[in-house]
Structures are given as C-alpha cells and as structure tokens.
Specification:
By secondary structure, the chain is of the alpha+beta class. It has a single domain, classed as Alpha-Beta Plaits. The chain has seven helices and seven strands.
Length: 173
C-alpha cells in the first residue's frame, strides 16, 4: 500500500454561469495536474441532486504528499477559483494499492463512473467510541458493497480543527 493525500473541493458556481464559463472553469481545474508537480489525478464535475449547502460542482484531487497540497493551495490556479466561486475543501491521508492503475486512477474502471464524496462532522460531545463505531460501520458498508465500488479511500481530515469536517471518504462507483 502507498500513502497518499486526498483533496476534495466543493464549489458554488456563480448562479448565472454560462455553459462556456462552466467548461472553462472545469478545464482550468482539470489541467492543473499538468501544470503542477505532485498531483496524481483529478476527477471533477457537476454535483447531481440537491444539497443543503447549494454546492454545484465537486473536484477530487490526489496528491503524493502534504507538501504538494500546500504548493497547490498557494498557487494562482487555486486562488482564481476561490475568488470566483468560493469553496469548501478538505484534505485527508489514506492508502491505495501501490500500483499504477489504482494510484493514478487509470484504466477502464476509471473512464466512467460516479464519485461519492462523504464529508463527516461529529458532534463535539460524541465519544471516541461512538466516532470509531461510526467509521467502522462505514468501512463495513464499503466492504459489503465492494462489488459495486471501483475504489474507496477514507481518513481523518488533516486540518479538522479549522474545518467543519473531521473525516472524509471518496468512493468511486
């Protein structure tokens, strides 16, 4: 297994964004993997279905290490999107098989599909045992439905003291 750092970005596109502007925004984010070192893969698109925070788009990025995320977040790429669309982001460490296909998310299984991004926030009063139990049940669900899942990563958010979320998971169907 290889340690990696996952980065989830949730965007609220401007309400009056045109199809061309939306395409430019997504292309801009997608091509960041070719402009900066340390980005292993990018997956992005429009969020399907309503959500309580009115997010319109989600971006998933995989980095080799924490330092690569810091470089990305200080780049003009990141600043431009932040200024134009606002965002919520979380980073978490996880592990994947140390092989080119799962690491870089290449191959037939990754050409098409849906990403499910789960951001988890526990009450401050939640006991450690309750948190561990909830996370263990999430892993059991992932294992139970593994025949439908291409890849699943989960972990504790790196800056969870500064974030609304303490844990996150990305599941590719």
């Amino acid at each position: 297994k290889r340690k990696i750092v996952e980065h989830i970005i949730l965007l609220r596109a401007k309400p009056n964004i045109s199809d061309a502007e939306e395409k430019d925004m997504l292309d801009y984010l997608y091509t960041s993997q070719y402009q900066m070192r340390g980005i292993l893969t990018v997956s992005l698109g429009r969020i399907e279905g309503p959500n309580s925070e009115s997010f319109t788009h989600a971006v998933f990025m995989r980095f080799q290490q924490k330092e690569d995320i810091a470089k990305f977040q200080s780049s003009s790429y990141y600043s431009k999107v932040l200024d134009e669309h606002g965002l919520v982001s979380v980073d978490f460490e996880s592990e994947v098989e140390d092989d080119i296909i799962p690491l870089f998310r290449r191959g037939e299984d990754f050409n098409y599909g849906v990403e499910f991004m789960l951001l988890i926030s526990f009450l401050e009063t939640a006991s450690r045992e309750s948190v561990e139990d909830a996370l263990a049940h999430l892993q059991k669900l992932i294992i139970h439905y593994s025949s439908f899942i291409v890849q699943a990563t989960s972990g504790c958010c790196l800056d969870h003291m500064d974030s609304l979320y303490s844990h996150a998971s990305v599941i590719r169907f």
